[in-house]
Structures are given as C-alpha cells and as structure tokens.
Amino acid sequence: MSVVVHSLNAGLFEKFRGALRPRDLFLHDGSTLRQVRLCTRRQVAILAATLLLLAWAVVATVHAFAPAATSDTQVAQMQAKVASMQADYSAMKQAAVVQAARIEQRQAFLSALVEGKTDAKTLAAMVPGDVPTAPLTPLTAPYAKVAQQQDALAGKALALTEGRYRMTADALRRLGVDARRFQRGNPSLGMGGPYEPVTKANISDDADPQFRALFMSWKKMDQLEREVISVPSARPVFLKQVAFTSSYGVRSDPFRGGAAMHAGIDLAGPIGTPIYATADGVVNRAEWANGYGNLVELNHGKGIQTRYGHLSKMLVSAGQRVKRGDLIAKMGSTGRSTGSHLHYEVRLDGRAVNPVPFLQSTDYLLAVQNRTDTRIAMGGPDAN
Ligand SMILES: [Zn+2]
C-alpha cells in the first residue's frame, strides 16, 4: 500500500484524502443492522487493492492476447509447412505413379519377349519408353530396385538372343550359307528382294535405348529363324534304304569316262523308294529334263532350290506348295542313269553346292525349323 501511496504525487494525495475521508456504512442483512466504519486508511487500502487488481487485469489481458498473436503466426507457418509437405508428397506420389507405370511396361515387354508368343509388330509396340529415373524417395526406391533387376534381365535376354542368332548363323555358315541371305525384306518364297537390313520400323522414337537394342536383337533372331525354314535340312530319302553311290564334285563320267562335274549326290535304292521334300517350298517344275530324266525342282525362297532327278514317278506338279517331309516322288532310273537312284542337288542362287553338309549337320537347324515359338530359355540361379 505504502508503495502506491508514495508513488502518487502530493497534490493528488490531498485531493484523494478529501475523497477518502472516514465514512460509516450501515449493513442490514434482513434481521440485524451492523455499522462498519471505513477509515481513510482502510479506503486507501481498498483503492490500492483495486488498482493492483486493475493493473493485473491489464497485464493479464496483454499477456492473454500477445501469445494469441504468436500462435496465429505459428499456425500460419505450420499450415504453410503442411501445404509444402503435401505438395512434396503429391510430387513424390506422382513420381511413384510414373515409375510404377514404367516398371509395368518394362515387365510386360520382357515377359512377352521371353515367352516368345508375341509377333514382332505387337512386340515393337510394347517397347517401353525412355522414362527418366525418378529421384530416390521412400516411395520410388522400391521401383528403382525392380528397375535395376529388369535392366539385368534385359541384359541377359539380349545376350541370349544374340547367342541364339549366332548359333543359327554358324549352323548356316557350316552349310556355306550366309545368314545375311535371310535379312531380306520379303519373307515370301521367291528369289528375294533387294537387301534390306532390319529396320526400326514401328518402334517409338522415345523408346528406352536398352530395350530398343533388345527388341532389335530379338527381331533379327526371329526373322532369321523364321526364314531358315527355307534351308534344306531333312533327308530326301530314309538313309537306311539307300546306298551313297556318288559324291558331289569332279568325278569320272559314268557314260563317257573322263572327268566331269557331278552337281549333286547319288543315293541308290530300289525303284519306288519314297522321296521327300527337304524343306518347305513351291514346286518350280515337275517334268522331264534332259539328263535328269523325270525331275522335280523345289524353290524354297531366298535363292535356295533343291532338285530330285531320275524319278520313276512324280507326285507333285508345278506351282504346288510343299512342306518339309512331304512325299513328292518315287525313285527311278530315268534320264542319264545306270540304275535306280536319286540324284539330289542343293542350289544357291542357281549354283549347285555340296548337299552333304545339308544332310549331316542339320540337327540344330531342324530344331530351329521345328520351333513352335520364340521362347527364350532363361534360367540359372537367381541374381539375388
Ligand atoms: Zn547324280
């Protein structure tokens, strides 16, 4: 109280002193009447207490409102932070959605390629696009891991398709046939059109380079394997039924003596021994031909032909389509022949080549020709 009193200046004190002269209050509570005396000192104490209370109320009010203002700023800041986090999360989520789509596309392509049940055109449309890898976040990290495994799988598949192409090309080379013979645009029978390398047709320009390379390798392999069907690989007769009587090359002419080129091989057997087409093709001719007697000539496409001479009977006619292994004629001794045998020729671009390799090392080619799909055998222990 004294602090309050002394803090007031003297003039004010005198003014208040008049106002705060001693007073008597009469309080009636319904039954009794009490007199209360308020001396100046007590009134000053009451006033001081009131002033203190008022001061506290002001301070408390200021304090009550000041933190409220701070809190508003904090809320705004927090709201901004939340909004920013939400934006970040949306971006992360969007990146994850893009990565998920990328993974799915790559997986669909790899599955289709490995299973080998899709044609080149469909597969070309499935080559995944070149989607940039998203920055690593908790949401994209799992996709990055799968993408890595897919890259490894694509690499493996590429090695396998290239290996398979090489095996087929090697098998052809052993026959004296260049694999590039089959890289022509026109897969139909006939002599083939101009050389056309495998094109990137139908693949989107923004394709993932690794997957584009894999597709190109697969397409090249698939094309070769499809067209290898035109390579004579079967035997024209059951070898157990015949004797190998004359080989390809220069020999002594059986009629005139003297050296003469023998353009095929002679396989001797009884008249009427069945003779089979050694590859799919079209009958080019089935007629009498000088020297050959009754001759069947098959056109297998890609400049490849086979000839079957000295036949006793021809069971096909020109223009007819035949399959490898189809019965086409019966053995005989027509034309320049000293006894019942088959004269068998393989011709590349009109030139007779040695047919023996075609009869011998053809197990691999037969397997390729008998393929039902282009499934790529993948296996081995897991990368993980
Ligand atoms: Zn002959």
List keywords for this structure.
384 residues, alpha+beta, Glucose Permease (Domain IIA), three-stranded antiparallel β-sheet, 15 strands, 43% helix, rod-shaped, binds zinc ion
Please provide a written account of the structure.
The strands form four sheets. Strands 3, 6, 8, 9, 10, 12, 14 and 15 form an eight-stranded antiparallel β-sheet that branches. The chain has a three-stranded antiparallel β-sheet with strand order 7-13-11, with no helix packed on it. The protein is an alpha+beta fold. Mean pLDDT is 82; it is low at 1-5, 186-200 and 380-384. It folds into three domains: 2-82, no CATH class; 105-230, no CATH class; 239-361, Glucose Permease (Domain IIA). The chain has helices at 2-7, 10-19, 40-115, 120-126, 141-174, 209-227, 356-360, 363-369; strands at 23-28, 33-38, 243-246, 249-252, 259-262, 265-268, 274-276, 281-289, 293-301, 304-309, 313-314, 321-322, 327-330, 341-348, 351-353. The radius of gyration is 51 Å and the shape is rod-shaped. The chain contains eight helices and 15 strands. Strand 4 and strand 5 (259-262) form a beta hairpin. The longest helix is centred in the first third of the chain and has 76 residues, at 40-115. It starts with a helix and ends in a 15-residue tail after the last helix. It is 43% helix and 19% strand. Residues 246, 262, 264, 266, 343 line the site of zinc ion.
In short:
With 384 residues, the chain is of the alpha+beta class.
Number of strands: 15
Taken in chain order, the helices and strands follow as HHEEHHHHEEEEEEEEEEEEEHH
- The structural class is alpha+beta
Bound small molecules, by name, code or SMILES, are: zinc ion
Low-confidence stretches: 1-5, 186-200, 380-384
The count of helical stretches stands at: 8
Distance between the termini: 86 Å
**Total domains:** 3
What is the residue-mean pLDDT, rounded to a whole number?
A: 82
Strand content: 15-25%
Task: Summarize the amount of helix as a percent range.
Answer: 40-55%
How is the biggest beta sheet arranged?
Answer: 8 strands, antiparallel
Please state the CA-atom Rg, rounded to the nearest Å: 51 Å
